Amino acid sequence: MIKMTMEEAYLVVGGFSLSAALVNAFKGVANTIFEAGQALGSALRRLSGGNLCVCK
Residues 6 or more apart from 42 whose CB is under 8 A from it? Predict the structure, then answer.
């Protein structure tokens, strides 16, 4: 294994960093997709059951 000096270590470029902001962005997108699917499924269930509006 080759030992690197601190100057060489500072010059290393690349890799992948996973920040909290990136995780929150993915979580927000996933949550939005989940809620849209839930609303669509609920609408389809109500439509197929004939229970569109309970206003009397």
Answer: none
For residue 46, the tally of other CB atoms under 10 A from its CB is: 13
For the stretch 11-21, pLDDT in tens is: 888 778 889 99
SS3 at position 25: helix
Give the count of beta carbons closer than 10 Å to the beta carbon of residue 43: 11
Q: Quick one: which of 52, 53, 54 has its CA closest to 44? A: 52
The rounded distance, in Å, linking the Cα atoms of 37 and 26 is 17
**Does the predicted TM-score (pTM) go above 0.85?**
no
Residue 42: name the closest of 31, 33, 51 by CA: 51
